[in-house]
Amino acid sequence: MMGTPIAKLCLLEDDPTIQELVAERLRQKGYEVDAFDSADALVANPPEVTRWDLYIVDIMLRGKTNGLMLCQVLRGISPTLPILILSALSDPLDRIEGLKQGADDYLTKPFEMEELFLRIDGMLKRRSWYGKLPEDNSIYAWGENGDNAVDFIRMEGKRGRQRFAMSQKECMLMKLLIEREGQVVSRDVILDQVWGYDVYPSSRTVDNFILRLRKYFEKVPGQPKYIHSVRGMGYKFVSK
Predict the structure, then answer these.
(1) How much is the mean pLDDT over the chain?
(2) What is the pTM of this model?
(3) What are the chain's domains?
């Protein structure tokens, strides 16, 4: 019987002490880790980036390419490649910018290694889940004349004639709500199913992602027709 394949992680961290510590702890957990302090070589050879199953990226790197630029390159090559930003920049605007540039998750320094392990494990599970989606059942459309749609394979959304890229978590959250149409889905369930853990993120994290989905799919985000809040309980999706 073949065992579970070892996940290959690419760690980009310019602080040698942090790089060595994180890489060693990840190897102890059973991951195969390649560590770099610059992303210039990767950007210069884009096909090379598909060697790894998950990226852990610091924003501040040596060389010409910072972590946000690398996220753009990675996301342009693969919409499902997991990217975790690991940065000392803790301002909410830094987090938002990281997610906009294609990161799936953002962890600030200092951090607990156990939290890093949980996030990595959850991201790898979600990538595996995406790989099992059948092509002929990857698109869900709703609303008037099917004006709204999500392509879960290509990680793209549509409202009317407008098309846009979506992050992995946005797709996962939307799929969870769609699968439970008409039911109230609590924040705890969302954190467990979409993030893969429910200890470290706050419920505010879910609220922020819901706001983003409303901006994508609601004509008037402040008066949602499809993605509703149920006070004190969670969120509910209706297709009509």
Answers:
(1) 87
(2) 0.65
(3) 8-131 (3.40.50.2300), 135-237 (1.10.10.10)
